Amino acid sequence: MKKKPPVKKGQQVELEIHSLNHDGEGVGRYQGFTIFVPDAVPGDTVNAKVISVQKSYARALLQSVITSSPTRIAPSCEHAAQCGGCQLQHLQYEEQLKLKQNIVSDTLKRIGGIDIPVLATMGMQDPWRYRNKAQVPVGLENGTVRAGFYEKRSHNIIDLKCCHIQHPANDNVVHTVRNILQQLSVPVYREREHKGLVRHILARTSFTTEEVLVAIVTNGRQLPKKQEVVQQLKDSIPNLCGIVQNINTRKGNTILGNEELTLLGRPWLREKLGNLHFHVSARSFFQVNPLQTEVLYNKALEYANLSGTETVFDLYCGIGTISLFLARKAAKVVGVESVEAAVHDARENANVNNIKNAEFHTGTAETVVPRLFKQGYHADVVVVDPPRKGCDEKLLATIAAMRPQRIVYVSCNPATLARDLKYLQQNGYNPIEAQPVDMFPHTSHVETVVLLERK
Ligand code: SAH
User: Fold this and answer.
1) How far is 362 from 368, CA to CA, in rounded Å?
2) Looking at the domain assignment, is residue 232 inside a domain?
3) SS3 content of the chain, % helix, strand, coil (to 5)
4) Could you say which DSSP state residue 62 is in?
């Protein structure tokens, strides 16, 4: 029988932190029992208060640092202690990169039994102000409108003064919209009651064209004082290319609804990656770190190793960014994506760039790819870039049956990556190498590109 945990909720413990877990939380032991401490780093000795106890581990909140690790730094952000947005600001950037390499390497071994070279994480020279998108909740606190991130482990909104990982233009949009809502007394959403109106502010800024697109997400169609809101935004946001009202009347955490009204300009912004131009609409997925996106895509392109004669599948293609990167080096690219608006953008983007050898299909990869395979399509190289839950097994089985020479797997979740690599390894493919790329500095998230070759 397992021993009873040696700690209780509410207990104060002194711990030496020896490593970080996959969420970037410090890991210490108390009488041999594992305790996770967010905001603590390896080399720290800390006082922490236990907040929850499970069978094999507990979680404790940092109360004070008794001795500080040499890798600990003071976060540059005044909100770092409360904000749930960043998890690693108190850790030197070089150490963050090592942590991410370890997360990938450990997870591939532990979940997939896969032991391949995991290269050093490709990081940013200047890991600040890298985000092109802000998406923040709006709420009311004692009669004052708040807009910002959620506090850690809660849905209380921090009124964000400045976010150091955000493009300054996005910060400006958040402040401006908040001030306008306050000044014009536009009702804001009350999450607990599912009442009120404005629930989120979304801002997208292009690092290349500098256009700014604003979306105001509302719980209902009527937006009081609409004309004033639009006029004031027009007056205060430089390079504003459009304002949309996105309507989301559903309960829960999904931010965007399906209905959208254009209040000003156009409902998409112009973006540039490498020498390709893209239209990005508010609802389409677009990588949030444009500098690192080029690094990521170039790595995917390198692993695809195209000579110009290949047919390439780009699955989970979004607005066709990877597809168009590949199209100039391949005979033909076939993109598959489940969100119709994104496929619409993808086709438009192929046109904008005068690319004729890319076609796009709407539907889930797990239904479209088996259908295309039956129709006689073949692939020499397959690129997949699924959301966090990874690929459906039916899709992996079809890819294996298509027998491409190479598979390039782009992943934002090492755990599902490991699971899917294991399946592919058992079905004809050798994982060769993994390259972590830091798309999200100061957070515990990591993006990975893996090359697989047919056995
Ligand atoms: N490769 C793109 C998008 C990656 S994000 C880029 O780099 O920009 C993952 C994409 O997969 C999203 O656009 C999402 O809408 C889409 N998606 C989610 N589930 C899917 C499924 N089952 N089949 C196809 N596409 C899916």
Assistant:
1) 8
2) yes
3) 25, 35, 40
4) E
Asked whether residue 377 is marked as a ligand-binding residue, the answer is: no
**DSSP 8-state code for residue 440:** S
CA–centroid distance, 95 to ligand 1, in Å, is: 30
CB 194, CB 220: distance < 8 Å: no
In a domain, 315, yes or no: yes
3-state DSSP call for residue 158?
coil
The CATH number of residue 209's host domain is 2.40.50.1070
Task: Output phi, psi for 42, to 5 deg.
Answer: -55, 135
pLDDT in tens, 347-372: 999 999 999 999 999 999 999 999 99
| In contact, 59 and 127? CB cutoff 8 Å | no
Residues 152, 239 within the same domain: yes
Angle of helix 226-236 relative to helix 168-184, nearest 10 degrees, comes to 150
Active site residue 412: yes
Mark whether 444 and 297 lie in a shared domain: yes
Distance 395 CA to ligand 1 centre (A): 14
- Domain range for 379 is 98-125+289-454
pLDDT at 2: 63
The per-residue pLDDT for range 309-329, each reduced to its tens digit, is: 999 999 999 999 999 999 999
